[in-house]
Amino acid sequence: MNWDKKDLLGIKGLSREDIILILDTAESFKEVSQREIKKVPTLRGKTIITLFYEPSTRTRTSFEIAAKRMSADTINISASTSSYVKGETLKDTAKNLESMMPDVIIIRHSMPGAPHMLARIMDASVINGGDGAHEHPTQALLDLFTMREKKGKIDGLNITIIGDIAHSRVARSNIFALKHFETKITCSGPPTMLPPYLEDLGVKVEYNIEKAVKNADVIMMLRIQKERGGISYIPSIKEYSTLYGLKASHLEKAKKDVIIMHPGPMNRGVEITDEVADGPCSVILDQVENGVAVRMATLFLLAGGDG
Amino acid sequence: MNWDKKDLLGIKGLSREDIILILDTAESFKEVSQREIKKVPTLRGKTIITLFYEPSTRTRTSFEIAAKRMSADTINISASTSSYVKGETLKDTAKNLESMMPDVIIIRHSMPGAPHMLARIMDASVINGGDGAHEHPTQALLDLFTMREKKGKIDGLNITIIGDIAHSRVARSNIFALKHFETKITCSGPPTMLPPYLEDLGVKVEYNIEKAVKNADVIMMLRIQKERGGISYIPSIKEYSTLYGLKASHLEKAKKDVIIMHPGPMNRGVEITDEVADGPCSVILDQVENGVAVRMATLFLLAGGDG
Amino acid sequence: MNWDKKDLLGIKGLSREDIILILDTAESFKEVSQREIKKVPTLRGKTIITLFYEPSTRTRTSFEIAAKRMSADTINISASTSSYVKGETLKDTAKNLESMMPDVIIIRHSMPGAPHMLARIMDASVINGGDGAHEHPTQALLDLFTMREKKGKIDGLNITIIGDIAHSRVARSNIFALKHFETKITCSGPPTMLPPYLEDLGVKVEYNIEKAVKNADVIMMLRIQKERGGISYIPSIKEYSTLYGLKASHLEKAKKDVIIMHPGPMNRGVEITDEVADGPCSVILDQVENGVAVRMATLFLLAGGDG
What is the pTM of this model? Predict the structure, then answer.
């Protein structure tokens, strides 16, 4: 099985084999970050640009560290310092960057489909680092990597996703990915946050969180996306927290060895209590560590194969 | 012919031979960016600082990529995060940076002459990355590089520059550079945008754009410098666009193999139509590509010669 | 004598031997920045993150240059682009960064004790790059390095510190460090800027600047910390400048070979006149140069010893 795609725009478009290839590749890269000398020459002489139109510590830093540990040159462009304050279109920005011969561009943009537009007009590989409420493929891949690492497999898992599914690119990308495996996915949250298409996707909808977490192998909490208007879909943060915040008592209904995931940044006391976030079932920081490995794998598959 | 200058502050001060040396050096570096492994060790162990007091994607990124492909260490400082919010003078900022032993500082500043002041007080090489409406030498050099590449020569060309000549550092630097060659330069634009000194420089002034583009080998469009108040010099964007925006019909009056240039970022539909910007005569993206090569050459001549 | 500490959180906690070890190590690194090829492989494959919640040119740039000259990978995170705009706690930000396996984190934060909190929860080494009015250890170390370099010793020196001692992390760290040596420290400034604990520390308080500078080997000026409210402690800048600004006439009262220090950025004409700042006694720019060496030493001792 070889990688043959130019871009990573979303989980949609990937096969089960593609996903497994990325996870297997990430596994081989994970130990690089655990070495004394965290550096391999794999992407020496490659130029990798992060083009972020939304603020981010985690994702940008994760990609930048992944790239540097593979010896690539990295260039960071953030919206606030970029030419688009002069009114340039995203398309022209992309065409201009392309002319500087980058190998990979990682774009985060509030507009769904922005990475796809870039991919069409660029020879460079494009990675979707999050496009509005649409997709965030590397997040889903690191989530699956973490499930597989902790559970030994993905097939057969009961996965419960709780929160603002409708406005979450993380949830969407995860659902698309998990549908390639024999998983049972349950989504929970207030009705205003559960999109109508879920049942068409074969995802179970369960408004009651107590029932939703029952027998779960994996509980994935989402953050209230205050910056994308999520807060207008619920009466109040307090009510949301009471009804849908994950508490220690919920874990008793799940499988004994349930793992708790969260893409971060967490709103502690809102969607998750400190007790759960910092408890023994939490694999939230493993997700972050695995994020670097998954991004190394992604960069390698897109930019390293033709070296 | 050897390079013997510490700085690159403007085209003023360069001889024809200096310019040709930079273009020839850039030619030898251009292929580095087309390799699989885009990296040469030329500037290993050199420290290159970009000090940008005005926003920029293109120029900062171009310099940073150029430096990294030559293995230099790069440090980015942008005004919004710099000490000058604490009231430090530019001179003190420069002296402080100097004490950290950089090899090259690239400065962009709204104040004409800022790079010259830095060059006087620093041992490091200073490159003017654009100083107000004064000069932008690497832009002019990449423009000449592109003309020479496309036309095989610079001598003998008819070059028409259209737009806000009076407030354009790009136009100024280009005129200074092109005067070293046997070129016929015509400037066009509304009277308020054409400075009185043009005819003294031997540049033809032609208010009518139809006449200005006649027989042109090169048409160089300038952007309306909204951020430097350019907009107050014209009644309206719409009128400007009607009278001075470049349209496909204009190209018929020029030479058959005319090339269209623009320093970017473009205001599409204002100074240039999509049809022209994206048409077969446009070399706008070649300019960007050549920008990296010209900046590699500049950095090499300033910092690499004494290695 | 070997280094055995994970972090550099403050001068408090360092022994005289620790300080001398850092200064000696810095001495051996200083010449790296004076070479043609300013690069040693000492920290190759190490990941160093600067996490700055307050603006800074000097300190961030100094650390970044130090790290790059030792071949480390550097990642810059500034508050304005970080996840904390999404409401993440500093602790969670730290835990997340930790999961990406950095070797050293340099944090600047307005909250005293922020670096100590990070150090407790992270395996990575933490360097305090300035925490509120608390400590700024690398600044004090570069100050001592400069004194030792210029005077051949630290023991026996008369050191006068003038300005807003109460709100200055630089003054605090310097006093802690200098107390390990047989120095005579005098502090001067308006009563509102001199904290009551000074005499307990064995520091002489002298409100009259003329008397304070008498026989000084070293005069260290502090900046008015406008951004930390310093200005409310004095009637006016003009009065402050008249009473406590350092002028050439003051130097006549000090030792003949007195050196003048300032941590920068300077408010010229407020706490120091141009004549003094740029005069022959000033070692202000030496401090900046030595800052890179001291930071290389610090990074080496924290991250290089286990390589």
Answer: 0.95
